[in-house]
Batch of 4 targets.
Target 1
Amino acid sequence: MKYCKYCGKEINASAVVCPYCGCQIEEMQPAESGGMGIAAIIFGALGGWLGLLFGIIGLSTYKTEKNRKNCKIGIGLFIGWIILWIIIFANT
């Protein structure tokens, strides 16, 4: 438990806003959009270099695990396409 710095009442340790006085206790984090991760998946599935690019940019900027996972999937799909092309051209 912790105490509100404005009204002094005891509040939940994970509270962002005091339920008694309504004051903001901690700075709220803005929500992340998942656009870069989704683009990485789409372009990675199509075998394009943009899947790799969006995936790398997304990994370096996103903080939530869901968005980072989408970027990793996009990079993985791109690598899968590269391996497929290597196998195809190695057999010709």
Target 2
Amino acid sequence: MKSKHMTVLLSLMTVLFIFIAPAWGQEGIKSRMAERLPVIDALKAKGVVGENNRGYLTFRGPKEKADVVAAENQDRAALFQHIAAQQGTTPDIVGRRFAAKFRNLTRPGEWYQDDNGTWQKK
């Protein structure tokens, strides 16, 4: 199941970066996000972080690996900003779209925030 989750997430990231990387030149973000994925997955599995409804990770437990979570959120913010500029929308709207996609990838036992702001455990 974990490999399926990673495959889907990496596929989503790859599709996004195929379209934006040439114009944006941010291949580094893609590789940093891929490198962090095992740590992020472990934090989610432990209930330390969850996916909020704006496309970012939020602490749900002790602030473990805070530097990794901060770096992930920073890269997500840059990604949302770039996509928003390309699409003529706002980073908030892009983040909310990503949140819906991340919510679908949430595995049993992991936390996510619904559109109304209520935290749920899948």
Target 3
Amino acid sequence: MVQASVKSDIIRQLQRDVLSMQGSDTPVLGMKQLMGLGPVEQAFPNKVFPVGAVHEFISTGMEDATATNGFIAGVLNPLMQGGGMCLWVGTERTIYPPALRFFGITPDRVIFVDAGRPKEALWIIEEGLKCTSLTAVVGELRELGFTESRRLQLAVEQSRVTGFIHRYRPRAENTVACVTRWKIRSMASVTEQGMPGVGAPRWNVNLLKVRNGKPGSWQVEWGDTGFRFLSRPAQTDGAQMLKTG
């Protein structure tokens, strides 16, 4: 019995060590409240968004690419609350920098690099993920192979930088070593009752794959204080407001 107990303790410790290397550390006090991802947290190991890991996002059209950038910016908001810096790299930029202010990120906290070729962009992304002075790196790429993605994941396991790879119109949704795979699709906004104009941005958030976790789908709106999770797509009064910082 004693021997079996010792083996169980060793296995549990190994599991914790593996999850830690993959960006899924044991939750620290206040982490869930800091990230503000509400029900999405239930999908992850330890029920906390994996930082120090690489996340893959796939979009097939400009409308979804815009929605994806908005969601990524919403996740970056709490990560950068302590004054962190972000590197944003790509060959075909799909982000409008001044729009980041809407998500509580001032563009001066983001270093934008427009690379001439995909290989150059990938090299810059990898080097950025190794840089401990950065909080996060966003890379806009079309193609990403498994070997390349493995190098990115190995980089963040050492630096603890969080990576977001946005693959815009890839030829194939091939297997990669990233911890998660997401697809974000835009939804029609809803204005306040009786008010004209355009409402807050809304998205269908689909977590297709998550290592050691459980995929899921959510309807999400971005408001003045962070993510707002909706019970139904076209309803405004049944949502739960969750602050990001």
Target 4
Amino acid sequence: MKNNLHSPAERPEFIRKQFEFAAHIRDPENNPVPDGIEDRRMAIYRELFFNNVEDFMASSYPVLHEILGNDRWLAVIKDYFANHRAETPLFPEMPAEFLAYLQNTRQPESNDPPFMLELAHYEWMELAAVREESEIDWSNINPDGDLLNEHPVISPLAWILNYRFPVHRICSDYQPTEAPDQPSSIVVYRDLEDEVGFIEINTITALLMQRLQQDTALTGSDALLSIAQEMQHPNPEVVVNGGRDILENLRRHDIVLGTLK
């Protein structure tokens, strides 16, 4: 039997009231107060729901909040609250819903910062790293292994991110109006103390990590020599020696966990 609860005429009275109640709270300018309820009482709910959402989003996206300024920020949250249809009721998923709104629902405005979506994604990624539930299987990892002659293991709690703008540097005092010639590559990671951090990486580091993630048969030296060959570097040993330092630095950050046993 077809469910017609989405059709107002088919809804029981108490469900119609619930829809009217929710519609008014989400968008009071376009949905009147339900019949029989004082506006004074509805104002309590309007403020409670909106303020909770706004406060949570502001703490989840602090840099974006600061960049936009309070008036523009509140206008964005108001539009999100009124027009975005969330895919989940779970409170911890709200930052992901807000990112989806910015990417898919909201209509860009002429005065939006050109880095707005990338900055929002970066701030969300920091939150996602905290909540990631992947676990490290230490049974096949030697933390003190030889990173050149064995296969370096990249942590499942490390993510390579590529952006047109240097989102990790954006703040109230640095707001580029155009993307630099060189894009930014960043590793967001959660270390063994469950602290989230990031490091900016160059092209060689990004390629090295990607190779090691894709092929567990490669030693660190193998991966670096293949990169040197692609670069047509006249002295591959220079790349290998520099790569050793890169791998050791990644190990210090718990991005490389050790080597495969």
